[in-house]
């Protein structure tokens, strides 16, 4: 029998539901974002997020089932993000999932959001274990060795900001639009990455950890020096700052991934997260993979950013190992892999 699961995700600022089959077919994947709701506050506001999730979750689930042409009775289980994340949103998802499984007599599986991201390359590219996973988004930055659905080994990660967060902050201090990743990348295309020297934090030390907050501060300092010397930033200055910053992030991510692959050889390097959309960063990581003789896998962006198909998939992987959660399933704001 081929399993079919409903997945539910509400741990940050996207409300999502999806129906996925065990053979990797995504029958539906609905994502309702909240960017507009949080825009005026310059970041995700937990109270607003929780309320929006509570309002939209059942609509997303209904839509996901309708698009898949299914009712609850056609499912083999429900998987829901049980953390880590903003607890109000997580609770809203977990409560809805409990209601659904209680009514329909279905199994329930609570999923770690990070495991959802980390297992996505198996959904999209049917790769086997083990593989090395680089998760780079606005909230995450981890190098994980993935040995099984619940066997993750953290080889390194950021000790401060996530790289997407750094892109967003750099965009803010250069007066560019949010989210910062795409706008910094667009500016960087016209810039010279070598003109303004920026640091490559932590590369002078052993290990695979990363740091991005000092890099952001270095951009701020370089900006202020240019402003003081010239009385303002030129269009070219801004492009050069973006290009220099982007090159530094790419170097740090590539070098630490290279080290992780050297210390823990794996047949596949997979990347996920919004930052993996960056062409310069992606090219640097592809080089690292090819130098190490590893296959490079980057799931399509809509499955790299927050979605519920990855939760349904991770839930099925755990279910096959015998994992079941009861009505006691609790949401967890913190839940390391
Ligand atoms: O995975 P994601 O959609 O959300 C989570 O953080 O979970 O990632 C969003 C982050 C934002 O910080 C955004 O600025 C960054 O990914 N991002 C990029 C690019 N597109 C999105 N960063 C660099 N280059 C891009 N092209
Ligand atoms: Zn995420």
Automatic annotation (TrEMBL):
One GO cellular component term: cytoplasm
GO molecular function terms listed in the Swiss-Prot or TrEMBL record: iron ion binding; tRNA N(6)-L-threonylcarbamoyladenine synthase activity
Span of domain Gcp-like: 25-313
UniProt: Fe cation binding residues: 113, 117, 306
Binding, substrate: 135-139, 168, 181, 185, 278
InterPro entries to which the protein is assigned, alphabetical: ATPase_NBD (IPR043129), Gcp-like_dom (IPR000905), KAE1/TsaD (IPR017861), TsaD (IPR022450)
Cellular localization per UniProt: Cytoplasm
Class of this enzyme: transferase
Catalytic activity from the UniProt record: L-threonylcarbamoyladenylate + adenosine(37) in tRNA = N(6)-L-threonylcarbamoyladenosine(37) in tRNA + AMP + H(+)
Enzyme Commission code(s) on record: 2.3.1.234
Cofactor(s), names only, from the UniProt record: Fe(2+)
Primary residence: cytoplasm
UniProt keyword annotations, A-Z: Acyltransferase, Cytoplasm, Iron, Metal-binding, Transferase, tRNA processing
Record note on cofactor: Binds 1 Fe(2+) ion per subunit.
GO biological process: tRNA threonylcarbamoyladenosine modification
HAMAP family: TsaD
Reported function: Required for the formation of a threonylcarbamoyl group on adenosine at position 37 (t(6)A37) in tRNAs that read codons beginning with adenine. Is involved in the transfer of the threonylcarbamoyl moiety of threonylcarbamoyl-AMP (TC-AMP) to the N6 group of A37, together with TsaE and TsaB. TsaD likely plays a direct catalytic role in this reaction.
Family: Belongs to the KAE1 / TsaD family.
Protein name: tRNA N6-adenosine threonylcarbamoyltransferase
Taxonomic lineage from the root: Bacteria, Pseudomonadati, Pseudomonadota, Alphaproteobacteria, Rhodobacterales
